[in-house]
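Continued from yesterday's entry.
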Amino acid sequence: MRVTKAQAEQNRAHIVATAARLFRERGYDGVGVAELMAAAGFTHGGFYKHFRSKADLMAEASASGLSQTAARTEGVDPAEFVERYVSREHRDGRGDGCTIAALSGDAARQPADIKTEFAAGIENLLTALQSQSDTPGDADQRATRTMVIDMLAHSVGAVMLSRACPDGSPLADEIIDVCRKEILASLAHYNSDQVAARSSES
């Protein structure tokens, strides 16, 4: 039976979503096309009706996953973001977690188109986080962006470092707990400095 255009689009979206989850769980090289298609409920041969290559799917799946991360961050202030992100639940939930924490190491070794998707995704996430922290004035906005970049880099690094340890090891938990506490303390310090600066100007 001939597949309608709408059904073909749904099938493609399902393949992309499946790939995004599997790539987060196992890395780009950890799952092949045949296994990926089987997980999505399709035959291996059907892959090339949707994508020219695995690299094309990798780029599209990365863009999709990065977009989801930014969307989940809309309306979330930095402290709440850290509480959710630098957590044992996020660390253990690779398949449903952040694409940046799951695949940044892999992306660094991939072609430019995948790096471009990551750069755009990171920028979108920074924008979403900064929108919850912005204060008037160019200098304040630059300071906020610096704070958000620092916070995100430390949060991603904490999750990646914890995941590099054996599952359930005391060190893996210690990294998450220590880093979350320190990042939140840094945020509180930044916020108090901003309040003090505004008070001195008024």
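--- second protein ---
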Amino acid sequence: MADQIVDSSFSAVINTPIEKINLPEWAFNLPEKEYQDCSPAHITAAKTIGADGRRMSINVEMIGGSLMVQHYQEEVSEPQHLVLTSFSDVFTPTGRVVLYVRWELSVKAINDTQCEFTNHVTSHATEDMMKGLDKQGIPFDVFRAQRQPNSIYHNRMETPLFAASIERAALNS
């Protein structure tokens, strides 16, 4: 996908040995309240199984004044590496668009008792999104310029809260 909207990556320290961390188990068992506590933009989260049998995480959030419904399917599912992808619905003030989001979570050991958690999010325009923007007379560069700072800010704010949640899950397992 050529038309990138956002590429945002932030890291935080998790104070637990890497062997105790299981990112897929955390992501697919995250209680709704805990998801909401990781960002004021988080509205709700649920899990389900996709038509192809893969686990899905459905996340709803309000980023930059736009409601976003993400349908994350697991692509890579390892204890220290999780990649989820979604064709996400974004309800903007000018209408609904669908964009492609890749959410990658990973941890690497710093030492025997700490890990570095990285929360990496990229999003790209879909063909339907580009057609929708054209119909509305919105240049892609304008859409991207409005979306980028809000998405980057959101990722920066949620990353340490996700890390703390992953740490709690690891310590309670």
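The chain has a mean pLDDT of 94. The longest strand covers residues 95-109. Will compare against the first tomorrow.
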